[in-house]
From TrEMBL:
Lineage: Bacteria, Bacillati, Actinomycetota, Actinomycetes, Kitasatosporales
Organism name: Streptomyces marincola
GO molecular function: nucleotide binding
Positions of the Gfo/Idh/MocA-like oxidoreductase N-terminal domain: 6-126
Any Pfam family matching the protein: GFO_IDH_MocA_C3
Domain GFO/IDH/MocA-like oxidoreductase: 143-262
InterPro entries: Gfo/Idh/MocA-like_OxRdtase_N, Gfo/Idh/MocA_Oxidoreductase, GFO_IDH_MocA-like_dom, NAD(P)-bd_dom_sf
Name of the protein: Oxidoreductase
Length: 375
């Protein structure tokens, strides 16, 4: 007998759900069905429901303007959060307490304190919460991570992580953007988090961060550029740059190993063609170099690729990738980056504990960065 389809609901019906999560659900229509959609904007909700009717394998979900009413009525297995970041904590807790697994857009929440509160609502065997981290998925990432993990490229020595994008003043005209209380930070949290998460996925645990941040162009509470120097547990030294001031937009990760450089260059998503392997001078092992450059498949990074693993975890009651300590590591990295930038001191992994001001807010109540009402 075929297993029943997983009942999914989306909260928020804006662009990321329409263009990211909806195609993912359609691609997995044999395993999951969209039973409900929630949005406080009834016009947007109606437009979304009309659109779903045109997508093969989706149909028209029941519409709700209240999350609690949807959870009580539909009892979904999976809740997908595509709302602004300030809403994630409350909505994730409501879904988990109702017994639903959660898949949440980044950033998952606004602080380590919020993350730990959400984690406390999980239960052994589920429900669990996973963060959207689609750049970890796809054949190019899987191939690179396997090569790095096996030592096939030699010891990772130097790395660069770059999210240099451009956002104009109109972008920050949206009231919740650029504010600590609603977005959690600037490009470090809202833009570069995907690339830094991928860097950690490839290199493992970080141990120390030194950083700087600034508001160079935009009149916002948070930063519009940040830079960091990072040391990893394996000894790798890395630079990280997050910017919304860069006309030539690019997302890039480069890792220089003892025997080769692996580099990913893209913008919002990647396929095998976006990865490049360069052997060190004098390395003439053609068979080895060929293995580096030829992943077995070409599966682009996407919400669709990540959803496959999440659905498998839900069916087996196992913790999904991109959750728990794995997800917390990326959030702790950002908290440490802000603390290092605002205090001018290096920050070590594990240093930000419950009695640290950067545990409860990314601005750490720093007088030059915290909103005036919190000081």
């Amino acid at each position: 007998m075929a297993a029943r389809r997983i009942r999914a609901a989306v909260v928020g019906t804006g662009a990321i759900v329409t263009h990211g999560h909806l195609p993912a659900l359609a691609a997995h229509a044999a395993d999951a069905e969209l039973v409900a959609a929630v949005d406080i904007d009834t016009a947007r909700l109606d437009a979304f429901r009309e659109h779903t009717a045109t997508v093969d394998g989706i149909g028209t979900p029941t519409g709700y303007t209240d999350l609690g009413a949807m959870l009580d009525t539909e009892r979904p297995d999976l809740v997908i959060l595509g709302t602004p970041p300030a809403l994630h904590r409350e909505q994730a807790l409501a879904a988990l307490r109702a017994g639903a697994w959660v898949w949440c857009e980044k950033p998952l929440c606004l602080s380590l304190a919020e993350f730990d509160e959400i984690s406390a609502a999980e239960r052994d065997g589920g429900p669990y919460l996973a963060v959207v981290a689609q750049h970890r998925y796809g054949s190019g990432t899987e191939h690179a991570r396997a090569l790095l993990g096996s030592g096939a490229l030699g010891t990772p020595l130097v790395a660069h992580c770059q999210t240099t994008w451009y956002r104009d003043h109109a972008y920050y005209g949206v009231p919740w953007r650029g504010r600590w209380s609603s977005e959690g930070g600037g490009p470090t949290m809202g833009h570069g988090i995907h690339q830094t998460d991928l860097l950690l996925h490839l290199l493992g645990d970080w141990t120390e961060i030194r950083a700087m941040a600034a508001r160079l162009v935009h009149d916002i509470e948070s930063e519009d550029v940040s830079t960091a120097l990072v040391r990893f547990a394996g000894g790798t030294m890395a630079t990280v740059v997050n910017s919304v001031l860069s006309p030539d937009q690019v997302s890039r990760i480069r890792i220089d190993c003892a025997d080769a450089t692996v580099e990913l260059t893209h913008l919002y998503g990647h396929s095998n063609a976006d990865w490049r392997y360069t052997p060190r001078p004098g390395l003439d092992d053609d068979a080895r170099v060929t293995r580096w450059r030829t992943p077995a498949a070409d599966r682009p990074s996407s919400h669709t690729a990540q959803l496959a693993g999440l659905l498998d975890a839900l069916r087996t009651g196992t913790r999904p990738p991109g959750s728990g300590t794995d997800a917390r590591r990326s959030l702790e990295f950002n908290a440490a980056l802000y603390k290092a930038a605002f205090t001018g001191r290096p920050v070590r992994a594990g240093e930000i504990t419950e009695d640290d001001p950067y545990y409860r807010a990314m601005h750490g109540n720093h007088p030059d960065w915290a909103p005036k009402e919190t000081q």
